[in-house]
Amino acid sequence: MAQNPAKSLTRRTLTLITTALGLGVVLSLGLWDVHQQDVLALRQLMQEHHLLAITLSTYLEPLGGTSRASTRISETQVGEPEISAFRAKSLRIEQSGGFVVLLLNATRDDLLTSNGKWVHVPEVVAAIARHDVGVTLSRNIAAQLGLPRRTAVAGLATAPEGLKGRLRGVAVIASAEAERDRSRREQWRTVLGVALASILILSVGLGALRKQRRELELERQRAVHQMERSRDAELARANRMATIAALSSGIAHEISTPLGVISGRVEQLAAAVQGQERHERAVATISAQVSRIDQVMRGFLAFARGEAPLLTHGAANDIARNAINLVQYRFSNSGVTLEFQPCQDEELQIACEPALFEQALIDILINALEASRPGQHVTLSVHYDQSTIAFVVLDEGTGIPESVIARVTEPFFTTKAGKGGSGLGLAIAKEILIHHRGDISFELRHSADMHAQSGTRVVVKLPRTEEQPGESTA
């Protein structure tokens, strides 16, 4: 079946949206991972600077033993010889590694540089007060300290115990330029990687969508072609049924006159043979068959014109027996045994037009006879359940090839064209059953162990009516 174009478009849109969301999630996770690596790198750099700050703070320990008056570090005493060694060490570190070493005075919230200047960096002062191991500084602060205008990292250490009243701590600050550049390169690599993966995925996805579109178009064309074939077949069937209807009407019209003549002659014979029992039975048989022909033709004309069936209730077993009695002589002449297996419930009723329904069973039985050879058996059995009544015909003949089972009820289709087959018997039987709201099916016979046997199994099903007595099954 062809799919709705709107549904196909919606499906493609959802596929593209889902793909885009998936790629967005992958990109976000990649950038988050790069950010986490950047944070870890800054923490590691901060820890290294913290260790360096601790090392530098050890050079201040000798100052802890001098008198408070001679070693007090203030704005006017920055050149005191007691801290000259520390400043010399700091200058060498700054010149070799791009660092800035600062001392935090105990009496003011300013930091002393190694060249004797005071700078105000509140972030470092607050971090030392919190005893943090380090702090990240903005690019503006880094530029203020003479470092590249990039994010900087400060490693912190508190002053030795002996200097608590004069110094509060040491800060070693360096630019995180290398780490930030590495992080940026990682981000670009992640973006480019995801972009390349996205292009690859989108290329594959678009190719798949194009293939799917082609397949859907082929499927639609096949569905349209199949629908056209089914419509053509239905039109052909309707034309054939119209032909049958016209043929039935013509035959009924042509037969009505001979039937009237035969009926009149039968009445004359009935008067002439009164008292002769054998001849009376023969005349009664002829009269009954003439009446049956008339009923069958009237029924054919009714369902050919599409009239609602005039259903009456009759015993299922009796209707099956009547059909068997009407074809028994043909089976006897052909040497084929015809058996009947009635259902257990003799009162089981079906709603039908007896003459027409019997004719459908007769057509099926004759078809089974024509497929059988002398010495073989044909069985008609009656079954029922809570909703349906089934008449099953089994034969031991050549069977119907699986390739033609679906066509056996088509008007004028026959596999016995060279043997006088008209292709109308089963077609008429099916139309009669449709007229009765029933169905007919054909299948190859199977034994109890499900091995195929020669012959055909034909099942005629009718719905049960509300008047059915009893619910037991045969």
Name the descriptors.
five-stranded mixed beta sheet, Beta-Lactamase, Heat Shock Protein 90, 474 residues, 10 helices, single chain, disordered C terminus
Order of helices and strands: HHHEEEHEHEEHHEHEEHEEHEE
Instruction: Output the CATH topology of one domain.
Output: Beta-Lactamase
Sheet/helix structural class: alpha+beta
What Rg is obtained from the alpha carbons, in whole angstroms? 53 Å
Multimerization state: single chain
The number of helical runs is 10
Name of the CATH first level of one domain: Alpha Beta
Q: What is the correct CATH architecture of one domain?
A: 2-Layer Sandwich
What percent of residues adopt helix (DSSP H or I)?
40-55%
Low-confidence stretches: 66-79, 468-474
What does the overall shape look like? rod-shaped
Total number of strands: 13
The first-to-last residue Cα distance is: 42 Å
Compose a concise summary of this entry.
The chain is an alpha+beta fold and 474 residues long.
Walk me through what this model shows.
With 474 residues, the chain is an alpha+beta fold. Among the domains are: 171 residues, Beta-Lactamase (2-Layer Sandwich), CATH 3.30.450; 156 residues, 2-Layer Sandwich (Heat Shock Protein 90), CATH 3.30.565.10. 54% of the residues lie in helices and 17% in strands. It has ten helices and 13 strands. The strands form three sheets. A six-stranded antiparallel sheet has the order 3-2-1-6-5-4, with helices on both faces. A five-stranded mixed sheet has the order 8-10-11-13-12. Strand 2 and strand 3 form a beta hairpin. It is rod-shaped, with a radius of gyration of 53 Å. The chain starts with a helix and ends in an 11-residue tail after the last strand. The C terminus is likely disordered.
